Amino acid sequence: MRVGHSTAAYRWLIVLLSVVLLLSCLIALAFGPASVPLAKVAGIVGQQLGIDMPGEWSQSQAHIVWLIRAPRVLLGALVGAGLALVGSALQAVTRNPLADPHLLGVSSGAALGAVLVMLYLGEFIGVFSLPLAAFMGAAASMLLVIGVARRNGRMETDRLLLAGVAVSFVLMAVVNLLLYTGDQHAAASVVFWMLGGLGAARWHVIWLPALCVVLGLVTLQMLGRGLNALMSGEQTALSLGFNGRRLRLQVFTCTSLLTGVLVSLSGAIGFVGLMVPHMARALVGAENRRLMPVSALLGAIFLVWVDVAARTLIAPQDLPIGIATAALGGLFFIALLKR
Amino acid sequence: MTQLHIEALAWAPQERGRAPRPLLQGVDLHVGPGEFVGLIGPNGSGKTSLLRCAYRANPPDQGRVSLGADDIWLRSARWCAQRIAVVLQEFPDEFGLSVAEVVAMGRAPHKGLFDGDSAEDARHVVQALAQVGLAEQRERAFASLSGGEKQRVLLARALVQAPQLLMLDEPTNHLDPRYQLELLQHLRSLGLSILASFHDLNLAAAFCDRLYVIDGGRLVASGTPQAVLTPGLLRQVFGVEALVDRHPLHTYPRITWITRP
Description:
The complex is a heterodimer of chains A (339) and B (261). Chain A is built from 14 helices and 2 strands; from the N terminus they run αααααββααααααααα. By secondary structure, chain A is mostly helical. The longest helix of chain A has 36 residues, at 59-94. Chain B folds into 2 domains: 1-83 and 163-222, 3-Layer(aba) Sandwich (Rossmann fold), CATH 3.40.50; 94-162, no CATH class. Chain B has helices at residues 47-54, 77-81, 99-104, 119-131, 147-160, 177-190, 201-207, 225-228, 231-238, and strands spanning 4-11, 24-31, 36-40, 62-67, 70-71, 84-87, 165-169, 193-198, 210-215, 218-223, 242-246, 253-257. In chain B, the strands form 3 sheets. Chain B has a 6-stranded mixed β-sheet, with helices on both faces. In chain B, strands 2-1-4-5 form a 4-stranded antiparallel β-sheet. Chain B has a two-stranded antiparallel ribbon with strand order 11-12. The longest helix of chain B is centred in the middle third of the chain and has 14 residues, at 147-160. Chain B is globular and about 55 Å long. Chains A and B meet through α9 and α10 of A and α2, β6 and α3 of B. Chain B: One of its GO terms (molecular function) is ATP binding. Chain B: InterPro entries: AAA+_ATPase, ABC_transporter-like_ATP-bd, ABC_transporter-like_CS, P-loop_NTPase. Chain B: Pfam families: ABC_tran. Chain B: Residues 4-241 form the ABC transporter domain. Chain B: This is ABC transporter ATP-binding protein.
């Protein structure tokens, strides 16, 4: 099942996954409370992209598909790709197969930022207030974790993992305290955000996660050789000419910023960043420059379909996508273990 | 050809809240072009720390480590990795890299950020794996190899680095007698400058041009195996009694440990 070292086979896999992702996005547009047949979906998308397609559809169908569903599907793909990418890089750099994007306390920091805005400031700069506050919280908690983990100017991986866990607990305690004592209406909307959802997707915000995911992928691919070396040990990395400390700081900064942007738009979506890298490794092995693109594509496909499930399982209501990823992902993993 | 020169080296580990206790003091050592130099000493004597100072992992508190005319601490880690390859006792792999992927890492110091893997890189990898007798294993998972095979893969990675100086930390650990001899004979035939630490003194005697003896962080003897490996020194440094005579087939000394009945 594993794709060997032949470059041609690897290229075909990338092409195949890209096609699957495109088709998945297209098909996902057809799902939702209002049914729009796939042929009409294709027509609407084609028209928006300037291609003349046969068929007829109503103005409201076009509105639903292009203005509501399309950015949502796209955000799902971007968040899935970004989280899986971050998970792959963090697992390599910490040499810990259980590392995931929420490792460095980013999600709890984002939650704290969101809670503070929702409970005390309100939407002070409109719809961007919550994402912005969540991102600031994420960045602050990342700095806090790195600060706690440093000792004598050094930063060891084990200390970083422990610092991440400790800071997360403290921040979540504050979040829960605020939710418990605060206005219940605002608290409910924060809890809903924390469970994860792609409902906030709009065309005018999609460029930001898109840019971040692309920059993240390019940056981490450039650091790929160093990630491989670091995965084999601190001294090994050094003997191959990599400064482990600087490389780790680069990877942590890059992944935390990317996670911060994604979490601020979609809430804390678990499982994708933890498990998708393992699925990708089963396909192409652990070499990070081969792994990361595959991991990103698989993550995107996975989250697009989980979001379809989230939109249809209890339609017309949305199931928070974090619940769906956790449930589906956990069951999938149990099935894999029991096979 | 470049030489490794270590002069008046002192090094202490950094620990918070404690006065630094030097683990290495006044170390003078050099490795000439094409020379195979062995480093011997009891456990905890500072062999690994000294090697780490020499491959630019431990910054020395005093003294100087230079390769040719260059102080390695005035050069980058990458500069060093282009010239010094290290075979370590470190092979964690939780993720299932293949043998070829582990060996290919050795090309890293010669590649820029945007360089892909070239056909030349692939050729280096194939060649090095053939040299250590593992050409058939290139697609296997590194983690599934035996300790000896892993050691040889790491040697292949060091060879792919195309170094001028090779350092090895107890390279014959995990190897059965056949591979111990094969590995060391192979190392000798490379014609590289080599600095290696040894536990097995007979192997060190058989293969090294010169030996340095380290005890308590200081060099206590150096010279040819004949000059260094004397019963007196073995008693003083290792605390054991031994007979030393000439190897029946060669000119190097042979050590026979004296055990109590």
